[in-house]
Amino acid sequence: MSLRSFIDSAPIIGVLLATLALGGCSAVRLGYNNSPSLIYWWLDSYFDFDDAQSLRVRNDLQALQDWHRTTEVPLLAQKLNELQTMAQKQVNSEQVCAIVSDLQTRVQVTLERVTPTIAALAPGLQNAQLEHMSKEFERRNRKWQDEWIAGTPVERSERRMKQLVDRAESFYGNLTSVQEAVVRAHIANSSFDGPRQFQETQRRQKDALQVLRKVRAGEIAPTQAGAQVRGLLERTFKAPAPAYRRYLEQLTTEGCAAMAALHNSSTPEQRTRLVQTLKGYEVDARALAAQRNEDAPADQPPSAM
């Protein structure tokens, strides 16, 4: 799912944490410290890197983590601290959307740091690698269709219901019947359109393959590769079609309202649990930010930047 479509199916506060892959306090530090390797294997599943490309990507991902640890993680820790105060009060949809907007900005800033790596690798990608990427898109598309398009409307609603409840309960504990009703009403009234979002996913994939193939073929000069990759990233975060952007804005508005309603119906015990969970994440984030990689300067950008 895209970040925006994820917003349509995530509870309050959890959107901030789950998108950053902070799945549980006990696993945060281990997962973060191993993130260069985890991200490398995720990227390799798309590109099937050769030895030289692997070395470049691994080094750049380590540099990215060094930068992220000292620049972005402290910001996350501060946000988690602020959310602990917010979690004890009633909230409105505007406040929730402000959290989402801040999250989007932080994610985009981080992804922009990967642009030089992709631009440097693109001219050396082989046709077989681009074909491998295309097939991986197809494989993931089939999985997405199974989760969000396949089955009857009732089956799809129940899948979304289970996913939303599971996410919410990981932060609040067991939901009350009132909260479950909030989630079910959100799903019933949501503007979410699986086929429409799938079409946008395919557009993005086609866009990515076209840009990479043009760079690979020499149709785009190496000096312009960075600009082309940045343009691709911009089109991913902001769809070219105005109608689709309006659709995403509607989803965001609906999602923020649902998140606020769910939180506002939480019990004192649920809010206490939420605050404790957020505090645990903050402690982990501050510990991670305090660590330094002795092998590379913390402010070292990816090579070729």
How many domains, as an integer? 1
Rounded Rg = 20 Å
Q: State mean pLDDT (0 to 100 scale).
A: 84
The dominant shape is globular
Distance between the termini: 29 Å
Largest β sheet strand count, sense and barrel closure: none
Q: Residue share in helices?
A: over 70%
Q: Tell me the structural class.
A: mainly alpha
Count of DSSP E strands?
0
SSE order, as H and E?
Answer: HHHHHHHHHHHHHH
Please describe what this structure looks like.
By secondary structure, this protein is mainly alpha-helical. The chain has one domain (3-290). 78% of the residues lie in helices and 0% in strands. The chain has 14 helices and no strands. The chain has helices spanning 3-7, 14-19, 25-33, 35-47, 51-87, 93-112, 115-121, 127-148, 153-172, 177-189, 194-217, 222-237, 242-264, 268-290. Helix 3 (25-33) packs parallel to helix 14 (268-290) and helix 5 packs across helix 14. It is globular. The two termini are 29 Å apart. Residues 1-26 and 293-305 have low confidence and may be disordered.
Quick structural overview:
This protein has 14 helices and no strands. It is mostly helical.
Write out key terms for the chains shown.
mainly alpha, 0% strand, disordered N terminus, disordered C terminus
Secondary-structure blueprint:
Blueprint: H1 3-7, H2 14-19, H3 25-33, H4 35-47, H5 51-87, H6 93-112, H7 115-121, H8 127-148, H9 153-172, H10 177-189, H11 194-217, H12 222-237, H13 242-264, H14 268-290
